[in-house]
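Before the break, one more example. Copy the sequence into your notebook; we will annotate it together after we see the structure.
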Amino acid sequence: MSRLTAERWSVGGHCEYPVRVRAPADAPVAEVRLDRLTFDDAAQDMLLQSVTDLSLRRVTVNGRVQ
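Here is what the structure looks like once it is written out:
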């Protein structure tokens, strides 16, 4: 089992991906919690590949709540 938590980030400058989590299909990342994240200038949407049990809370990318 794996766990990934990110909270209370604010990125005002440019970034390629606001959040990028990629894992092999046979070894997914589990229990991903994203809370109170803001990205003002992201070129792409979030990339979440082979992620299970995802929790998004107050995540904003380019002014849009995810």
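The two ends are 25 Å apart (CA to CA). The CA atoms of residues 38 and 60 lie 5 Å apart. Try to locate both features in your own notes.
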